[in-house]
Amino acid sequence: MYFKYLFIFCVLFSITANSQFLEHDKNFRAADSLLTEASFSVHKDNYFLTGVPLNTDINRQSADVKYQVSFKQRLSSKPLLGGFFPYIMYTQEAFWDIYASSKPFSEINFNPGIAIVRPFYIKGGRLTYGTISFEHESNGRDSIYSKTWNMLAFSLKSQLSPRWTVGLRGWIPIVDKEDNPDLTKYVGYGEASATYQITPGRWSADIVFRKGSGLLNYGSLQTQVNWKPYQNQNYYLTLQWFVGYTESLIDYNKHTSMLRLGFVIKPENMSIF
């Protein structure tokens, strides 16, 4: 009789222990997806693009160069309470009127921030990053040319399959109503993104849709097709199309449509958002 109960207890304990081990192993493997990347790494896409407008005349003033530098630093190799990893990140995007006579920079946007990232697996073993971040974005100017806002953002990024990666991001905007009374209407409250590997390791496509506060207006759409010329290198040739509002802060309330060609360096692993 006692051996019977002892046997049942051992079976139940084995199942429970194995379940806990598998859950621990899944968490370990999820965390390892961040730890295999260098602590200092690419954050968003780093790119250098040049192009022309599609909704106005093409001339020396309307054609431009757009480039972006973006990186992040993981502050700890061990997770904090709740399995979160702390990060600081920085992105700088510039619009350069390189074809004009004096070749001025028409706008530079600065975007520093801090974040905590929680890697985990959802049903089907799909790697997912949950992120909470606080960010500042401004153009570094003063007086009437100052455009600035802050956000508390929440995002989920998930690799649904070897070809599809999707993301949802929402934020609570914090805006100075005196300097930028209607900025919130244009930056909106969230965005959705997707990446599809057309030919894994060679061709991919990205799309980012940002929703403004209006029912149909004030949003933006950015799409790009990327081609990787060398599989052992981490840069791509890319064709990017942006249409909508808030491509740059200085012209946040002006509708633009720009087609640009250039090269991009992407994060080696799935980006955190």
From TrEMBL:
One of its GO terms (cellular component) is cell outer membrane. One of its GO terms (biological process) is lipid catabolic process. Ca(2+) binds at S102, R141, S146, D179. It comes from the Bacteria. Its cofactor is Ca(2+). It is found in: Cell outer membrane. The active site is at H136, S138. Its main location: membrane. Its EC number is 3.1.1.32, 3.1.1.4. GO terms for molecular function: metal ion binding; phospholipase A1 activity; phospholipase A2 activity. Residues 1-19 form the signal peptide. It catalyses: a 1,2-diacyl-sn-glycero-3-phosphocholine + H2O = a 1-acyl-sn-glycero-3-phosphocholine + a fatty acid + H(+); a 1,2-diacyl-sn-glycero-3-phosphocholine + H2O = a 2-acyl-sn-glycero-3-phosphocholine + a fatty acid + H(+). Keywords: Calcium, Cell outer membrane, Hydrolase, Lipid degradation, Lipid metabolism, Membrane, Metal-binding, Signal, Transmembrane, Transmembrane beta strand. It is a multi-pass membrane protein. Binds 1 Ca(2+) ion per monomer. Coiled coil: none annotated. Homodimer; dimerization is reversible, and the dimeric form is the active one. PANTHER family: PHOSPHOLIPASE A1 (PTHR40457:SF1). Belongs to the phospholipase A1 family. This is Phosphatidylcholine 1-acylhydrolase.
